[in-house]
Amino acid sequence: MSPAIAATDDSAPRLARLSEAAREVLRLAAARGASQADVLLNDDTGLSVNVRMGEVETVERTRDRGVAVTVYFGNRKGNASTADLQPGSLEATVEQACAIARHTEPDPCNGLADADRMATEVREFDGWHPWTLDADGAIALALEAEAAGREADARIANSDGASVHTGDSVSVYANSHGFLGAERGTSHSISLSLIAGRGDRMQRDYWYTSALSPDDLESPVQVGRKAAERTVARLGPRPIRTGEYPVLFVPEMARSFVGHLLGAVSGGALYRKASFLLDHAGKRIFPDWLGIEERPHLPRGLRSTSFDHEGVATVDSDLVRDGVLVRYLLSSYSARKLGLQSTGNAGGVHNLRVGANARDLDEMVRGMGTGLLVTEMMGQGANTVTGDYSRGASGFWVEDGRIVHPVDELTIAGRLPEMFQSIEAIGADVDPRSHIAMGSLLIGRMMVAGEA
Q1: Where are the domains of the chain?
Q2: Mean pLDDT score across all residues of the chain
Q3: Which residues 6+ apart lie within 8 Å of 213 measured at CB?
Q4: In the CATH hierarchy, which fold is given to the domain comprising 11-232?
Q5: Which of 213, 295, 334, 369 is deepest in the core (most CB within 10 A)?
Q6: Which class for 231: exposed (0-12), middle (13-18), buried (19 or more C-beta within 10 A)?
Q7: Which pTM does this prediction carry?
Q8: Helical axes 11-31 vs 87-102, angle rounded to 10°
Q9: Which residues share a beta bridge with 181?
């Protein structure tokens, strides 16, 4: 598939309008006596279609705007928002934020990030790739993906539908330090969910492709065939006995463990003392070969940016080095609460890269001997306060380094601190559909609850 790229680009006038509104908001806040203020404005558009069994189910076009205003009167803070860029609405929103601030309790940690931390250069990182796709074109792609999936195997009995989405977003953040940063980005995806088998032996699975540029998407036929292959592979699951086994997670499941790490080292969890990694900066929490890097300036990175949600300049830095937690993830507020400095992570992390010590999934399956390959997890059983971990899982049973049959309705359990230390391998088979770039992950021992 080689989709056409849009010949026209309306991002410049949209950003100009948002920038003008941002300056007006800051002027209105200063005129009302606010000592500091900031504003985040966004303008998003999108097209989404869904088809099922060869029929169109939904076609949706969206256009969303938002203005979020924060004002400070000393250490008192007020927030208000609107979806209207008209002058009267902006004035009313600023007035409301000021009224709220005057009635809140002062907090010495409130305020903008320090002025000397503001980004001095705002760059683009090849994230703007609009797609000239109308509703008919999107429907055709979705129908093509579904047809490819349904025709790939006679055991495909039904479809949960295919979807195509394309969208763009432009945004401006500005504050009373004189900082104004404008950004723009696009996102596109094709997905399909299929059902194989009949009666109580049915199995469901899916596949999707997503990217900033339509040129980087897999074709609808590829999406359909992968969805079909994954779905029929799940037919005929067999039980396994409860016990402790090596557990191997495919990349899209593996990155959830990085998500648990991020939750535990975020400033909000730390200053509330609600993290199993409290006071762990400078301590080894992973095997000594493991590293995690934050790279916010990658070309075409999914979370590339010159500045965070407070205007603080982003920089390349390590989160984990040689298994040691190097730093936390801090906004200016959480940093002040902890007596530390902002890490430029207000709003989250930007493009994490997790180091590998193995090759691909096939090699890791061969090397694990006997154990569980997890391809899907259910539930929210990870507690980043205590470190306890328990989730539903399904996937495949591995014996003598080869997959022998599918399994489902399992529970995998452990404690995150021990699980982190028990990581034996991370593959180089990186899934490109996430800002957390990592491959498959092998944990040497976990409790797997199957049959008694």
Answers
A1: 11-232, 237-452
A2: 96
A3: 5, 129, 186, 188, 300
A4: PmbA/TldD fold (3.30.2290)
A5: 334
A6: buried
A7: 0.94
A8: 40
A9: 173
